[in-house]
Design brief:
The chain is α+β, with helices and mostly antiparallel strands. It is 31% helix and 37% strand. Strand 3 (51-55) and strand 4 form a beta hairpin.
Length: 81
């Protein structure tokens, strides 16, 4: 599998605090190894648009789609509470 970033995700990553950027990079590595890695807590977020959500930390999430052999990171944002 590979990872590709949408323009929205690229901007969101650049705007995120440094500790979130570091945590996201770690979690993206886990995603490449295993979609079902326990710390990701990845789940289908929007069934109709085939969108997934995974955890960066307790307060931040990233959203992605799976296209063939590529995870397309769509956005990175604080978790809505």
């Amino acid at each position: 599998m590979k990872i590709r970033y949408s323009p929205v995700a690229t901007r969101a990553f650049a705007a995120a605090p440094p500790q979130i950027q570091k945590a996201f990079i770690k979690q993206a590595g886990f995603l490449l190894l295993n979609l079902h890695h326990p710390s990701l807590r990845a789940k289908k977020y929007d069934e109709t648009r085939d969108r997934w959500q995974a955890r960066i930390n307790k307060a931040w999430r990233f959203y992605f789609a799976i296209e063939d052999d590529t995870y397309v990171i769509l956005d990175i944002m604080p978790h809505p509470k």
